[in-house]
Every structure is written in C-alpha cells, then in structure tokens.
Amino acid sequence: MDIELSSMFVIFGGTGDLTKRKLIPAIFSLMHEGKLSENFTIVSIGRQEKTSEQYREEMHEYVKEFSRFPLNNKLWDNFIKRIFYKNFDFTSNNQGYKDLDLFLEIMDNEYSTRGNRLYYLAVAPEFFEGIIRNLKNNNMVCKSIGWQRVMIEKPFGSNLKTARILNNNISKLIPEEDIFRIDHYLGKEMIQNILAIRFGNSLFEPLWNSNYIDNIQITSNELIGVENRGAYYENAGILKDMLQNHLLQMLTMIAMEPPVDFDPESIRDEKVKVLRSLRPFTLASLKEDIVRGQYGAGTVNEAVVVGYRQEERVSRESNTDTFIALKTYIDNFRFGGVPIYIRAGKRMDTKSTEIVIQFKKLAGINYYKEFDQIGSNLLVLKIQPEEGFYFQINAKKPGNDFKMEKVELDYCQSCKYLNDSPEAYEKLLLEAIRNNSSLFTRWDELEYSWKFIESIEKGYKNDVSNYPNYAAGTAGPTGAVDLIEKDGRQWWNTEL
C-alpha cells in the first residue's frame, strides 16, 4: 500500500448526522475493501461530553445500519480501536487546538500516519473560516512533514459576495491545492461515468453538438421534504441547495470540451469554460424561462404530509422556493442554440435524478413521413436511485406490417454490481487522500456558478409568489409543463 495513503481523518462535527450516516461508514467500507493503508486513524471532534468508548458504541450502530458491507467482528475490532473522540469548543477555544494538536501528534506516532492529516469540516458554514484560522495559528496545517488538507462541505458562502469574502480569507491561510470543496454528486459513479461515455466512445463525440442535439434535460426530484433542515432551507431554498452546486456541476460534465489530459486542473479548466458560457437571466427572461414553486400539503407514498410552511423552523408566510424549472443556454460554439431544461423539487411524485440528451429527429422523408412513427433518440443517464444508462432508438416491430417501435439499449449498473458500487463519500475521501482534486470544485467554478445564481436572485427581489402552488406528491407546478411545451417539447420521465 502506498505510504502516502497513510492518513489521519480529523472530523470537526463528529456528532453530526453527516459523520454518523456517511463519513464513518464510508471509512469503514474503504478499510473493508483494502483501499486504505494500515496506517490510519480517526479523530472526531465535537462539543458533546462523551468518552471515546461511548462514541465507539454509537458508531457501531451507525456503521451497522449505513455501511454497504456487513459487520465482521474481526474487521470491526480492527476498525474500532482506530476511532477516538475529543471534546472541545472548536469555535473559540485556542487552548483546545493546542491540546488537540498534541493529541494528534501522539496518534501520529502510534499509528505511523507520517504527519498526513485530512481535516473534514462537517460543520455549519459559519465555522469554516474560524476553524481554518485556528488550524493555521496553531501550526496544524502547512507543516513541513507530511500533508495536511481541508475538506469543506457545501454551501460555500450564501451568495457571490460572501463566497468571495470566505475564499479570500481562507486562501490567505492555506493554499488552494490543499482546499477540497465538496459537492458529493461528483462522487457518484454515474456522474463520473459521463466522461467515460462521452470521450470513450466514437459513437457519441461526433454527435455531441448543436447539429445533432435538440435539447438537454436535467431532473432532480425528491420524495422527501425539508425534514429537520427547515432553518437551513429558509436561507438556501432550491436555488442554493441544488441548482448552484449539484445541478450546475452535472451540466458542466455534460457540456465540457475534451480536456487535454485527465489531470485535475485540465478537467476543471474545461468545466469553468462551461460556467462562464452560461447565459445570465434578465428581467424579461426570468418571466419567460423560470417557474418557481413551493409544496403544500399532500400525499406521498400513501402517507399524508404537511406543506412546506407547516414544517419545523419554517415561517408560516415563507416564500422560499422548494421547486424550480428553467430554460437556459450555453453560449459557446458547441452548444449554441441548444436549450437546457433544468428542474428540481422536493415532495414530488417520484425520486429520480437523471440527465436526458434528446437528439434531433430525422427529416420527415420517404416512408418515415408516411407512417409518422419516428420517435426521438434519447441517451438517458440515470444517477439515482438506480444507476445506469440507456440509448433509445427506433426499430421495426415484428409482424407483417411495417410498424416502428422504440427500443432501449440499456445498461443497469445497479443490477450488475449490486453493492459493489462505492458510495459518493467513499470515493471523495479516498480521492482526497490520493490528492486527486478532479472530483472537487475549484474556486473559479464556484464564482461563476454564484454569478449565474445571482442573475436569478436579482429578479426575485420584489417578486411575491402565490404559494403554495403544488401539492406534495405531484409533479410540481403546472407552469413547469407549460415552460417546455410552449417550445414544442416535453419533459421525459424515464425508467430503467
């Protein structure tokens, strides 16, 4: 095993849901598969009073529930002895950082992690700068021995201005190459597969342009509401929770030019070009090309659920968006004139994240025109809950008459690999210690995505919406259908 993979995972926010449900189970799965060096340990930091023994008992239940591998006693015994819990107020206690550094040095010697530390900030965004500043002031980053990297969860800023301030302040403390900004969608297998499908097949690359593509659709529908995140969602809404990060990142993977190589910076350079080419919204285009929504009470999976305004820690007069559908364009040579339709919503009728590439129809000539049976060719990339893709083509239906039917050439990744497909956080943690930044967002990617979001928000300042405008468990506001149908197109709702 590469000694560079020797590492200490230092998790700020060690008692939070993200750590319990995602991070600790992900690290266990990596050890289960032999992806980690024998020389690793985990130090979780939180403000709750508890011992390492108590913390380990808690983690046992979460790993049992959320790891994709069954617990093995021998493996668990090896894992549990590497987990430690430290209690201190990481928001202000400078002495706490000194004590923490001393403890990490002891762990470093005991587990031979060679000074390599991955600091994971699984905390609220307002704590990012303070933690990094304390790490810097106490010589816990930028050390001469080993490497020290910082993983930052979204959201990075609340708007363009705050994002710039946060980035400027952090960049004065640690270099950009040591900052790993997370968008967990980039860790999903099918998101990574986009580049393989596009650039690994001669079938698609010649067709991947405005000459052959009619439109692109990106959909992310969720059955769940805001659950216990009402306070966060009131400030974020669907724009900042989904569009600014996940959905725009998916778009960059679909629309980027072939990188000169697979160096992380080459890939991210091409993604930035896409974000720079996104057409900003004007007051006129906002009215024509965006539909907003907020869910009311309804029924989801036969269960009666409350509306958004009745959720915990949500204002009873809230105008926060829980749904958005929009049409935009990428104003570059490859995709000029191709409409990009994006929609995302909570409390929808299905759970589905997918990308649909609709190719242009053949000209209505010869017998095709006579029978009018030519459907659209579609390339459908299924991100979740199922993973896979299929290509929809036209073929003759068996029989004496010449009739056409749609045929799907499909690849169900979830069916083939079952639980062998790693979770997003497994991939992201592993690539961070490998120092592969291609699955993380660079600052200029964030800057241009915030600029795009800002062009939308500016037009909303004086807009008071008539909410709620769709019932939970439905397909969203009727305006979303009108948005695409007025262009003579339709939303594709697909299944593997």
Write a brief structural summary.
The protein has helices at residues 17-32, 52-66, 73-80, 94-111, 128-137, 160-171, 189-199, 230-255, 264-277, 283-289, 366-371, 413-417, 424-433, 443-457, 478-485; strands at 7-12, 40-46, 83-87, 117-121, 148-152, 179-181, 213-221, 290-293, 295-296, 298-300, 303-305, 323-328, 340-345, 352-359, 378-384, 388-397, 403-412, 470-471.
Structural class from helices and strands? alpha/beta
Average pLDDT figure: 91
Number of domains: 2
What portion of the residues fall into strands of 2 or more residues?
A: 15-25%
User: What is the end-to-end distance?
Assistant: 38 Å
Characteristic key phrases:
2 domains, 15 helices, 496 residues, alpha/beta, single chain, Dihydrodipicolinate Reductase, domain 2, Rossmann fold, six-stranded parallel β-sheet
Explain this structure.
The protein is of the alpha/beta class and 496 residues long. The chain folds into two domains: 3-153, Rossmann fold (3-Layer(aba) Sandwich); 186-485, Dihydrodipicolinate Reductase, domain 2. It is built from 15 helices and 18 strands. Strands 8-12-13-7-14-15-16-17 form an eight-stranded mixed beta sheet, sandwiched between helices. A six-stranded parallel beta sheet has the order 3-2-1-4-5-6. Helix 1 crosses helix 2 and helix 8 packs across helix 14. The two termini are 38 Å apart. The model has no long low-confidence stretch (mean pLDDT 91).
